Amino acid sequence: MIKERKLRTRLGSYYPYFLILPAILYYIAFWAVPAASGIALAFQGPQGFTLRYFQYVLRDPYFHQALIYTFVFLVVSVTAEFVLALAVALLINTGFKGASLFLFVALIPMVMPEISYGAIWATGYAQHGWVNSLLVHLGLMDPQKPLAWLAYGQTARWMMLLIIAEAWRGLPSVMIILLAGLQGISKEYGEAARIFGATSFQTLRKITLPLLKPSIQTALILRGIGAVQIFVIVTVIFGHRNLPVLVEEAVYYFRELHQKQIGAAYALIIMGIVVTLSVLYLWLSGSFRSEEGRGE
Amino acid sequence: MNRPGKTIRVAGINWRKVAFQTMVYLAVAGIACFILVPVYFLFILSFMPKSEVYSWPLPLFPSKFTLDNYKFFLTINPKIIPSIWRSVEVALTTILIALTIGGMAGYAFARFQFRGKNALKLSVLFVRMYPAVAVAIPMAVLFMRLGLYDTPFPIALALNYGVGNIGLTIWITASIFMGINEELEEQAMVLGLSRAGAFLRITLPLAAPGLAAAAIYTFIGAWNEVVIATLMTQFNPTLAVVTYHTVADAAGSLHLQSAGGAFMAFPALIFTFIIKRYIIQMWGGVRI
Amino acid sequence: MRKLVGVLLVLGLFSGLALAETTLSVVSRVFSPPEEQKFIREQIIPLFEAENPGVKVDFEILTDQEMLDKLVAQKQAGNTTIDVLITYVSNFKRLVEAGVVADLTDHMDVVAPNRTLSAGFLKQGQFDGKQYFIPFTGDDYVLIVNRKALDYMPAGVSLNTLTYEDLIAWLKNIYEATGMKAYALPGVRMGLLTYIVGSSILAYGGCFPDVSSEAAQAAWDMWYRLYPYINDNWVTYKMVNDPMLREETWIAITHVARAGMVYLSDPTKFTLGPVPLGPVDRGSVAGNNSLALAKYAPHKDLALKFIEFMTRPEIQAKIAQGVSFNPAVAEAVNFIPPGPARDIIEAANIGMSGRVAFIPAPTAKGGDWGVVKQVFEDTFYYICARGKGVDPQYLELQQSIIDQQYIEPPCK
């Protein structure tokens, strides 16, 4: 077959490794080496190798809280963002008048620097902030009794506020990957389907989405990795430990309690969780049984 | 476009099409509102004087539009103007590194089957899975020992940011390359182009949306990063470092914080505006 | 287009090389608000540069963690570029243990000739008998009040005679009349809560850091009764400036510099007073901001000159006027003209005239001030936020956590 012959170039079947080699070398030089000392720190007790810091973290009640909150946040926010982002990508893909401008608008939240992102939502949710001000102008809130969004003890409400803020920012980052993927799907598929009588919805489900699968996978993995590690926005709006999440706790031990080993153990545990979730997701979505046909 | 038997025409108007288009516009309007309302407030807060920024209820429009906040922001730290160029340099260099090294690897993952492929592909994301706070100091020391501390041209930062962005680029470009039919390359080779030539002339242009997406991600990541940049610079900071240390502690200075954040966002917005056209370049020649 | 890009790149390259003279690198975690930074760079630094021709001072703000990380990284790489640090007392021990600050015991006559530095503050900067840190501004707390609240003040009470019990009655009046929970407590973790509550415990006759003595229990009971009038958003307040400026709250006890910023933004809208009286006296926890010399500083002599400059009474006075910090040098107050700036300093000084406790650095191996703060915060949550009230057993337990941070606990 032509395909197989073309694969056997001068370099033989090692050709792909050569293309990947620069990336791997780069990683080893600029990440693995410095990371090694960070990782080693988690095992360095006063008397040598120890697992006590891991034990500490696993028994810490804040860790359990952080696990739950992070997980809830991950599931709800990534789902919401994915649905919205897919909708936006499909909308833009229809090519309506002004779609290019809409694309730009949809990308704006992604571009904002972290301080702006934190500032705008922290001041938004303040009792006399812009959210309440807007509601007052719209006649939906009494200026004498503005709602305290960040009131103590309202954890469920806090989680909702966090998800809204993150959905606002996460939407474009998922959307561009899906949109870029949509660009590669030939219009002929859709037209053929229409000729055979399929509705738009059927076309979407049976043709577009399966063809979009690599991009969906990429978007979900990248966004999932980011969502599990949410941190700065939580501390900016809520401060430490009011809504514990994994990386916020790790940083708390590093920076506020100055317990580097516990922080390092936390970091490794977080990485373990992320790797596990990623592998699980990829396995469930069929990435690992693709030895034939199009490589996935 | 002929859908047999499903067109409803009343008084010469295709109602199905009108309904569909209305829904599209409504959805677009709704989502645009959700996105733009916070952005709107961020920007108007930057044009309000301090007294108004804290008023209750916050007015929907500044009563006196002022550029003082921006002027103040630009004069707090003398290093701010050079820092803009530095940020541009870092961002563009990082894009170069990430797209070339990452793009090559992404192509390999898309086109070939080989041993350890799945493990390798996942492993390039490890760097994004490990919280940066745990690696910051060893990373900085490494670059300092290489003599790359606080250089006028911020090569150390670009190298550092490349680490996180190569993995991301690999995944995005791989998913895009997978969507490009291999037969196109083969036909080009049959017609006389080398493999590399086929890649450059056929595949790469078709992959432009993916490359553009990866470029935007990389640009924004490099443009906004603060932790490593603070450690690695002193007299030659990036704009993110200067902005962060100028207005981040904004207790009582929301007007300045807004101006600083908005100022920092402008170049990134411009870059995004320019690049977005490469994301949607396949509408059969229709330029919108 | 390409030419333009090329020109821009070259410009960027060369702009970094425009440092022909000697540059003294000063990093600070103090003066971080934008107005304060600008003030230092435009009003104070040029005076030093004028005295030392050919010298430029590079003044940069860093957070506590960034400063420590940077100094450690520079030390490990053998390439230190920082000369002077300005930092807060809670960081002193860590910086000394990391080996990045220099011993100045033999240089005291160079850095602080002919002036009286507060003895208590000097002691906070000493470790193993060696003087590492030179105090420069003191920490004080004042009461900042929105004038609208004055209408609800209980009869016979004035800002200068206000006790904590009066404060509760006052807040109650405001709540009953307007429905507003008018007190702003900076409740975010690792924030000012420890110092505000600690100061009140001193005012009730307790010690610092003490949470379990009888005096402390009386103070906790006071906070338990004050809690219903604390604004609901208190756990997210890092500083009280924003809620006070937005008038979400009307009364707060806060650090003098922050209060000064609010007060000076509109002295017709706000007013200030000293911290409230407790049954025994006023109480104040005192921390300080100090200057230190980086151990491997490239410009040692120039750095020492800078430290001397910053502790000069005239400069101290200027800084106090510009940013409402309380000078650590006694002579400085003579140089401050009357006016709002002086009012602020005087309110702070009244607060300091009662029972003052200096923040004691943890002496035990692995002891950390963050743990002490966490105890105060957890206790506040337990007693007030979760409504468990004063529980002596719980308080004993919490006190033992604090005591573990010291070889000899300060409050025994």
Secondary structure: helix percent of chain C: 40-55%
What low-confidence regions of chain C span 5 or more consecutive residues with pLDDT below 50? none
Share of helix of chain B, binned: 55-70%
- The radius of gyration over CA of chain B amounts to 24 Å
How many beta strands in the DSSP annotation of chain B?
Answer: 2
Lateral arrangement of strands in the main beta sheet of chain C: 2-1-3-12-6-13
**Biggest interface in this structure?**
A-B, 119 and 115 residues
The oligomeric state is heterotrimer
Give the overall pLDDT of chain C as a whole number: 90
- Count the DSSP helices of chain C: 16
What share of residues are in beta strands of chain C? 15-25%
Q: Structural class, from helix and strand content of chain C?
A: alpha/beta
Computed over alpha carbons, the radius of gyration of chain C is 23 Å
Q: Main β-sheet of chain C: number of strands, strand sense, barrel status?
A: 6 strands, mixed
Order of strands across the main sheet of chain B:
1-2
Report the sheet with the most strands of chain B, covering strand number, pairing sense and barrel closure.
2 strands, antiparallel
Number of contiguous helices of chain B: 14
Write down the overall geometry of chain C. globular
H and E order of chain C: HEHEHEHHHEEEEHEHHHEHEEEHHEHEHH
Which H/E pattern describes the elements of chain B?
EEHHHHHHHHHHHHHH
Description:
The complex is a heterotrimer of chains A (296), B (288) and C (412). Chain A is mostly helical and 296 residues long. Chain A folds into two domains: 1-42, no CATH class; 61-288, MetI-like (MetI-like fold, Orthogonal Bundle). Chain A has 13 helices and two strands; from the N terminus they run H-H-E-E-H-H-H-H-H-H-H-H-H-H-H. In chain A, strands 1-2 form a two-stranded antiparallel sheet. Mean pLDDT of chain B is 87; it is low at 283-288. Chain B is built from 14 helices and two strands. Chain B is 70% helix and 1% strand. Chain B has 288 residues and is mainly alpha-helical. Chain B is flat and about 70 Å long. In chain B, a hairpin with a 2-residue loop joins strand 1 (9-10) and strand 2. The longest helix of chain B is centred in the first third of the chain and has 32 residues, at 15-46. Chain C is 44% helix and 15% strand. Chain C has a six-stranded mixed β-sheet with strand order 2-1-3-12-6-13. In chain C, strands 8-9-7-10 form a four-stranded mixed β-sheet, covered by helices on one side. In chain C, strands 4-5 form a two-stranded antiparallel ribbon. In chain C, strand 4 and strand 5 (130-131) form a beta hairpin. The longest helix of chain C has 18 residues, at 34-51. Chain C is globular, with a radius of gyration of 23 Å. Chains in contact: A-B, A-C, B-C.
